[in-house]
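Continuing from the previous page of notes. For each protein in this section, the sequence appears first, followed by its structure tokens. Read the first protein now.
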Amino acid sequence: MRQFVFVTCSLALTACSFDASSGPSDGRAGDAPSPFDSSTMRDAALVDAPALFTPTHLAAVPMAKLVQTFEVPAGSHDIDTSSAGGLLNLEIVAQAGGGAPLAVAYFDEVTITGDLFVHGTRPLVIVANKITLNGTIDASAFGGEPGPGGSKPGSTDAGNGGKGTSGAGSSTSDSGGGGGGFGSPGGAGGAAGLTAGAAGVADALPNLPRLRGGAAGGAAPRCASAIAGAGGGAVQLSARISVAISGAGAIHAGGGGGTGGGSCSGGLDAGSGGGSGGAIYIEAPTGSIAGGLWANGGAGGAGREFANDMGLNGANGAAALTIALGASSTSNNRDGGNGAAFNGETLVNATAGGPTTNGGGGGGGVGRIVIRGTFISAGSFSPLPASLP
């Protein structure tokens, strides 16, 4: 395992946007009641800290908010960022500089031992003095269901640019949908003699000036059952003192796989494109990462040519240093494209869907990871993180 040392800003708090001068159904578990207990509250006047703390993507946070010591216990916990409250006592907060509102949890010290399965319309942000992650934050897309703040197939959320476009149809063949793009481009749909579903482009903003999830792929053109892969979600951990992600800790923000070609009254269909990976943003003056951060692209679905054939669904983006394989078909010429991933040595880009008859869907691109602060890490990353000056 290669080791990284990210030294991306000085230990002076102001250099990391920490203001010292101011006075990321599938069987997910139900949301548990908020376990907050007043006995765990610390007196804000006893906190040896400046009056304001300014995480990236947020306006200044009063230190009086960072008083709750909390542990997410072992087990699976459902987190819905669409509304306030829940296990993390979320607050809906405007994103500084524009962009979608954020679902924000505030703590003094928080330890995440269990596994959080996060979904909803807004990116998840955890703000605290100290953050320890020993479990998993799963903000990935699942097929056509996006991660928190990710793009949903067929939606008009222009803010999640890089969507793949739908394929084209004719009386004899259909082209596959393109894969979504974000940190890298998606793959085009299989052309099948027509105009292929266009691949979503990569953006030119590796430092994530706006926190958002990944982009959806494009759907196949013929059947209503054709659903593109959704974009992976967005997760941000912002600590005033430190972030520690243990070897058992991980954040997963992969894109969803596109559906395979179906059969409907209009005939047989092509495959749909995979969604791109989402966004992971980690910041603190100091920290360590021994676990995994993954925002891989989802794979495209296979086209369907014969009534007794099956157009299989593409795989969701993997929580590992491996590509999501495009769905196979009876004829390899209609396979779905692979999703993009960093394989431990190099970034493997998304591939196009197979081109013949009813084409395969293109694979989704990777998302974005940013690590801001002085971190020592032997962790697993896909894609490789960007570091800020």
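Done with the first. The second protein uses the same format. Note its length before scrolling.
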Amino acid sequence: MTRGAPARPGPFAFHGVRLSLFRGLPLGVVTYPFTRKLEKWFSVRRVKESDMRTYAIGDIHGYLSELKRAHALIEADRAACGDSEAPIVHIGDLCDRGPDTRGVIDHLAKGTQAGEPWVVLKGNHDRLMAWFLEPFPRHDPYLLVGYTWLHERIGGPETLASYGVTFEERERVFRIHDEAREKVPDAHIDFLANLPLTYERGECFFCHAGIRPGVPLAEQDEMDLLWIREEFLDSTADHGALILHGHSPVKRATHYGNRINLDSGAGYGDPISPVVIEGREAWLLTEAGRVALPRV
């Protein structure tokens, strides 16, 4: 795939039937930032949604060892319940702050290409990285005045360092950009650019930051899906689906009734939280097995 190629379309759903436009794509519904013509073939699979099991992983932030630990815990739970097909949804923020963004993206890109039942969603940090790596870098208007992806509090410098790109405080941005475009593999740039924004499965709706309450799920804005905080976090409304998200760190993955927050602070060096969801119930996966998520 070349740089700037449009994202592949996700599955569609109607009357309880999931239509997957790509063989091997984890069963569910994904939405992408942009679309293209439908492929000429598709597969149809009927699903009893109450029986769905889904695994999910919170924000990763460049910690490959934590990601692999989370995957190992999921594999142990798969073995215990005899389920080799349930998808693993990665909630976004693959990059920034941690030491090995390159390793994280490489691991996830190769796994999905090899047919692993993985869904990898786009987080706000992933979009920041992808936009910087475009032929002419874009700035995210949601950032505070004076902040860019290269700001030390955002995490871009650690990400670039994982690709061998380092710079001094007063370096020109165009020089950093040129070196980054040279050293970050095209496959990684394409992978980030084409990440979907959401994934739906059973009673669950997965996205990075959350949703704007009162807006239908199918009409959510990309900026909200990647950046929203208080308007979503403070809402006790019934959103219909159970919303699974990250973006806003908490001490531990927590069930709030209408949503589950999976961001347990990996961006600040805390462990990643892998969970298993069955219906609207969820458990944290640990070395000792399943532990019910705390409810608030």
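What the second structure shows: The two ends are 44 Å apart (CA to CA). The chain has eight helices and 15 strands. We return to this in next week's lecture.
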